[in-house]
Specification:
This protein is of the alpha/beta class. The chain folds into 2 domains: 221 residues, Rossmann fold; 79 residues, Alpha-Beta Plaits (2-Layer Sandwich), CATH 3.30.70. It has 11 helices and 14 strands. The protein has a 6-stranded mixed sheet with strand order 6-7-8-3-9-10, sandwiched between helices. Strands 2-1-4-5 form a 4-stranded antiparallel sheet. The radius of gyration is 23 Å and the shape is globular. It starts with a strand and ends with a helix.
């Protein structure tokens, strides 16, 4: 079976008169296997969207080669279009058309015939059947994303590319969207997704961490987390704001983040006993109600790689 997507030394440079060249993607090589959810992770400007657009054939690479399901993008572009679906950041639903009419439109773009059964299947799958006559402009953010995904899936693609599909969607709708993606994966469709949310990437089969257009690391979430060498502590102090200010002055603290009344602290020296560090913190006037070691998250790994 062919791999879903293969990128071989792909780069993309944008030229603008009077400006220095912008290298958006720099010598990127990836192999995305058939039947996996693959996440491209990184901040704004990391090259995620540019990479997805090159995979879809929307943008040509400046150098390197791309193949989809064993087909070379440069020579088999027309065939590839029938095998992929693309949900962009600014997916354009037609607000003055109903759910039904939007899906009909995208089915006709793909020159499908007799797609009624497929449409009914997708509406049921997305739990949109009761709303099929509702105008798209009257849908909630989560329902709009479900409709956008239905439009992407109507022609039964082998691979779908999703560019930050849950950005701006409420947490409950994000969770529902991921449940749907898990079911899509079971149907045999490979999923390539860009996301700024590292908690979402934890659910992927494999993740690629990107920064400045370059690949930092690519592996399963478990193996990516295993590369982290620092100690991670969760601390609940008596005064979180005061503790945050003190922690930011301590050389041993590599990174600290505040979550409500809790502090997520990354220590640069893993060999130093955590209790010794906590005693030093107490010596600076910080009371500690509780503390515990935590396993590293993908966010911890990513921050350590770019800092």
């Amino acid at each position: 079976m062919n791999d879903a997507v293969v990128l071989d030394s792909v780069s993309k440079t944008f030229h603008e008169e009077g400006q220095p060249d912008l290298v958006a993607v720099d010598d990127l090589s990836l192999t995305i296997r058939t039947g996996e959810i693959f996440c491209l992770v990184g901040p704004d400007g990391a090259g995620k969207t540019t990479t997805l657009r090159m995979m879809c054939g929307v943008l040509p690479p400046t150098s390197g080669s791309i193949s989809i399901m064993g087909l070379e993008m440069k020579t088999r572009h027309s065939e590839i279009k029938t095998k992929i679906g693309y949900l962009s950041q600014r997916f354009s639903l037609y607000g003055d058309l109903t759910i039904d009419e939007n899906i009909d439109f995208f089915a006709e773009i793909h020159r499908m015939k007799d797609f009624t059964a497929r449409k009914d299947e997708l509406l049921d799958f997305m739990r949109l059947t009761p709303f099929r006559d509702r105008l798209a402009e009257r849908l909630s953010g989560g329902m709009k994303q479900k409709l956008a995904l239905a439009c992407t899936l109507i022609h039964r693609p082998d691979v779908i590319f999703l560019d930050e599909p849950t950005t701006g969607v409420d947490p409950v709708s994000r969770r529902d969207f991921w449940k749907i993606l898990s079911s899509v994966l079971k149907s045999g469709i490979s999923i390539v997704m860009a996301t700024p949310y590292l908690d979402e990437a934890e659910r992927a089969t494999r993740v690629a961490l990107l920064s400045g257009g370059r690949l930092l690391l690519c592996d399963t979430p478990e193996k990516v987390r295993a590369t982290f060498e620092e100690e991670v502590l969760e601390i609940i102090p008596g005064n979180a704001r005061m503790a945050l200010g003190v922690l930011r002055t301590m050389k041993i603290v590599k990174n600290v983040q505040l979550f409500g009344d809790r502090l997520h602290v990354v220590l640069a020296d893993r060999d130093r006993p955590a209790e010794e560090f906590l005693n030093e913190l107490r010596g600076k006037g910080i009371t500690i109600q509780s503390s515990r070691s935590l396993p590293p998250s993908l966010e911890d790994v990513f921050i350590s790689r770019i800092s």
